[in-house]
Give the backbone structure.
Amino acid sequence: MSKTVARLLIESLEAHDVDRIFCVPGESYVGLTSALVQQESIQLIVCRHESGAGYMAMADSQLRDRAGVAVVSRGPGLANAMVALHSAFHDAVPLVMLIGHVERRDVGRLALQEQNYARLLSDVTKLVIEVIDPDQASEAIARAFHTAESATPGPVAVVLPEDIFDLQTEALVDQPRDRYVAAPRREDLDQLAAMLEAAERPLVLVGGALFSDALHDASVLSDLARLAEEWGLPIIPTHRRPQLFDADHPNYGGYMGIRVPPLQIDAMKRADLIVALGERLTDTVSQSYTFPAAPEPQIPLVHVWPDANELGRVWRPTLGIPASPAEVIRGLLKHGVSARAPARSGWVGELHAIDGKLSEREGEPTRDGVDFADIVCEIDRLLAPDAVVTSDAGNFSSFIHRYIGFRQEQVLLSSVVGAMGSGLPMAVAAALRQPDRQVVAFIGDGGALMTGNELATAVQYGARLIMIVADNSMYGTIGMHSYMRYPERPFMGGTRLTNPDFAAWGRAFGAEAITISDESEVADAMAQAFAVKDRPVVVHCLISALQMSAWRRYTEADALP
Ligand SMILES: Cc1ncc(C[n+]2csc(CCOP(=O)(O)OP(=O)(O)O)c2C)c(N)n1
């Protein structure tokens, strides 16, 4: 039966379980949006900026094991969305971005807002699919989802010319492909088991691919805990994936984030085996390619990632296993209990104790604003066992990693690669997807005004979340780097900000708002914020700038000209 291409696209999206699309409307694809709002199976969330829409789609994807979908207009709309594509590409998050395009007859003429997407997006997407033949629109959607979700997941762009939506087509809905799971070979599992059995001080780093596997089947996280116990292994979640292992589990061996503190990294460097289990390995996790050293690791490295292309790309592992980390965990469990486990209890206990020591609250009260540690520790006490936490990029996030003891039922969503602006949009998407969960977004004053307008989207669609604004009146991270590199130049020069009253700002959007300007207000303010159930809450935290991160404090003397 004949139907419009817009209708075929909608049915194709439905076939891929899409029930929500994030967008900023554009004239290049009104043929699609006007058809979308005629039906109820797919909700259109109208955002304020395409970066917000893209980040929301990234978060949605990470809460439901299906590529998130955003739709943006041609040139300018796509340009605004680039940061989300960049982030999804680095973070290996499946994302399908639909892009409105100029009419087919104008392609190549530099028509209004035209771009060559294959060229523009070649380094931030896995694939760009341009729909020229209307009969192939559904096939394009099926290919986009398959590519976005398979091997190393990532973003795929589908370019939809403005003139195709109303055309009639006889084409059928192309059905979703099966998920193909890469399983380890028996000899690889045997070799891994033998290497673990021989190791006195192994480290098991767990990362993003395990997070993806757990979305599909959460029991893999309890399997990981069993493996850790039966094999006597320290489990170390990597940068911005702390929720992969309970921080209070005795086998929790610390957190491999940006610049691991010396006490911890020195202990870790005594390891005699690294197993990167579902962790792609990046400069962040590898401490700037020093541990494991690239390209030749200083100790044996086992690299498990569900895509052979990634194994050996930078590091030369002793053993590379192109497989799903969940399959590797389950394969190892079938090998039975390790005889070596008791002998490793000292090593595991040592790493766990170091982490415990580093998570202790320290420091004198600050005098130039609230120590953000006070606020984060209070939130840690109030967080629900299954809370969703989102974090923007910035030094304030070091307090989250140091002081929040994450659990496997909780989720941390962020741009792992550290693109600013993700914190609030991701929280909006999480609150819409899972309205019964507590959602807390941590954002610096810099990030808050990059995508903070999505607070309007939160109010419009009834997303309930708590937005913590860590306001130190500067792009603090950059100020810190500047001071570390050029201590003789003006302190924090080029990074200072003049901010609005974020509480008044929040109220103007229709949110509840609270200000914290003194340590003594923290407990009451947080209790108040967590009690609000009917709207978003903005907590404006006037924090110390001298307490530059959870690990670094400057003195007034540093700040003197
Ligand atoms: C989109 C984007 N632009 C710029 C940067 C560089 N950058 C990293 S952290 C940072 C400062 C963040 O400032 P703020 O949100 O106030 O947090 P703070 O570091 O002060 O805690 C900047 C500008 C980035 N990571 N992403």
Q: What stands out?
A: The CA atoms of residues 152 and 396 lie 30 Å apart. The radius of gyration is 24 Å.
